[in-house]
């Protein structure tokens, strides 16, 4: 049998590459949006997608992980598990869409967009379709169909990008310059504004559902098993709380920024704060993308290795390699921030660059937490995961309420870091008591400590040098970090 770590790396590349490429291409829309819209208008985009994150978790309610768990579980037929879960999501998504349409105006009023109830309906469709397609995508991963998986993801992204370019770069830009033709007259209405970002996403979601229709149609009425639903939901519902609490930690800050600052600053200044925070948050993209790709491959991989003799040792080694990679990404972003900041196509947003290292460090902690969290999934103790995530959510809420009025978006960034770091500690302690995995804390601490030392050295000693000189020195430091990691890991392998 081949090296399982190489197998995980290969699966991360196969299933993660399409997600990485897709999400990266979507992130490339940020320069388009920040260049085309006011900072406050970009704040609207940031806020609305924060709500999307909540709703997707709510409407999938832990069923993706439950599918991987029970489709491999003794006593459960995989095809019956698939039909049962997809049918459940279909029912809840339809109910959600009906309620969203009925109460769209009331929700728009609460969001402080009383003239745009259409936003609510558009996003309800987007979220409903995304929830419905989650399990078919998981099915493709389980059936080892990377080609179809990639086509679905990249097709969705390609349509979204094409429509954004069409509506915003072609139509809006030409219209603003006084140029028009029958295409612009037919498809563009300047009053819709940032709404075209949402329309593009909506159309892309419809096409994604169409791409996955063959997988959805695999369900059969006779394969729906009510007796399956109870244990599946018992396993999945705690994961809903894990997911909801996790999204509180990831996105609630953008919502609270508006609620906590609007009375003091006014709506335009508040949306500007949200825009600055959202744009600079996107500079942590590389760590976020890697974590997403890794999670696509890691979850089914960890379950498949569970019964093997050396599985826990394998999990420990994977954690060490994971830390090396995310620390390297952290250093890369910070060392080349003078170049990467141009990803934000608006100098008015650069005022928030000071929060980038804080958010990068927070994402490093988040990635470590995702690795640690496998213990409660493998041990069938998902309730612990819910408690840890709820604990993190409480920290997020309390610290945001305290720090945002004092520090604005910087308070939100520090809250994110404190929250994820605390969750890492709590999850590690509980995991060692309930499902001990022999993580090599000395090795992990060495790589984290070296990364922090090299970052601080660069930040304090060479930050004021001319950009070309600074970039050259930082490149040397980054290569040095990788060289040290390679040498230490080679020595570790030799000493085994």
Descriptive keywords:
496 residues; mainly alpha; 82% helix; globular
What does this protein structure show overall?
This protein has helices at residues 4-27, 29-36, 39-60, 63-71, 78-102, 104-110, 117-142, 146-176, 182-187, 195-211, 213-216, 226-265, 267-281, 285-305, 311-335, 337-340, 356-372, 374-378, 382-407, 409-434, 441-461, 467-495. The protein has one domain (4-495). Helix content is 82%, strand content 0%. The model has no long low-confidence stretch (mean pLDDT 84). The protein has 496 residues and is mainly α. The protein contains 22 helices and no strands.
Concise summary:
The protein contains 22 helices and no strands. With 496 residues, it is mainly alpha-helical. The chain has one domain.
Question: What is the strand and helix layout of this fold?
Answer:
Blueprint: H1 4-27, H2 29-36, H3 39-60, H4 63-71, H5 78-102, H6 104-110, H7 117-142, H8 146-176, H9 182-187, H10 195-211, H11 213-216, H12 226-265, H13 267-281, H14 285-305, H15 311-335, H16 337-340, H17 356-372, H18 374-378, H19 382-407, H20 409-434, H21 441-461, H22 467-495
Helix pairs in contact: 1-8, 1-14, 2-8, 3-7, 3-12, 3-13, 4-5, 4-7, 4-12, 5-7, 5-12, 6-7, 7-10, 8-10, 12-13, 12-19, 12-20, 14-15, 14-17, 15-17, 15-21, 15-22, 17-20, 19-20, 21-22
